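Researcher: Before we compare anything, I want clean individual predictions. No alignment, no superposition, just each chain on its own. First chain goes here; please echo the sequence and then give the structure tokens.
Model: Echoing the first chain and its structure:
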Amino acid sequence: MVADLGTYVEDAAARGLLVVQPRMGMPDPDTMAAGIAAVAGLSHPTVATITVDSYTRVGDHHAAARALASGADLNGFPIAAHGPSRTAQVAAAAGPDVPVQVRHGSASPAAILSTMTAAGLTATEGGPVSYCLPYGRTPLAESVDSWSEATRRLAEQSARRGRTAHLETFGGCMLGQLCPPSLLIAISALEALFFAQHGIRSVSLSYAQQCHPVQDIEALAALGQLAGELLPADVDRHLPGSPCSAEPIA
């Protein structure tokens, strides 16, 4: 069983430590596990990452399986094609003390989230807007419906296993510097509220680094204020790089 991401970040923040999350996603399970083990073995507090491939992102799991069977290279870990057992073996390389987060970019994440929860993983990210508009042609209304069901199931399935699901909104990163800070803040706050409304009790609110550090500090302050005003009190939350919880997940 891997560590709980929200608790891990909270504990690190209490010690004044920065949590670092290297991004990676490799199709071969042994290579993916070796990468996770390397991250977990660093001397700094870390979060390990499983990033999925482009076929899995758009729901073409048959194409991902064919690529694996043929030995073709993929640009990430095809989590649904590998299945829960293999994914659990890969994630176990982090050991019991380091969280593993699944990053995917899918507007229709049901298969990804169900596979990861069956593998014992509870931390992922995205959102119905931030993982729809930048990444594909899925209609926004369809993405909202898909994320509603998938988020609810993630919360319920994690709870049945005695775990707390954690979702990071990608809203603060959507299109990055092509968006004004006010729009990124609004999407991040609203997606976090969306997660809470569908049963998630541990969230992180992302914000992408822009071109002006003072503006970034002000944006994080605004995002933190909105989170405090909008999110229910029983929802654990943290911001990337905020004074109270420094976690550069976004």
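Researcher: Okay. Second chain, same rules.
Model: Second chain and its structure:
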Amino acid sequence: MTVIFRPQAVEDVVEAVSWYEAQVPGLGEQLIDEILRATRRAQENPELFRIVHRDGNVRRVLTSRFPYRIFFSAVGETLYIHAVLHGARHDRRWTGRL
């Protein structure tokens, strides 16, 4: 399954990584690794994750170490990543991206 990070999801990741790197050098890289692990879990079996937004059948996978939620849709053999948000941020931040 191919994974495509939409441009706004890439911006989410860059913003988060920059923040963590400013706190402790190397922590941003660890966040990227965690996001990729969570994305692989979604890629392997997207149906394991519940639908959180019916418009576009958007599902959510959580990261383990960092408090992030990754919102994605599986269409055919492609996994679209719509947003990567900190757990404290409201879902309204990404729903307009659909």
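Researcher: What stands out in the second chain?
Model: The chain has a mean pLDDT of 91. Additionally, The helical segments are 7-23, 27-44, 92-95.
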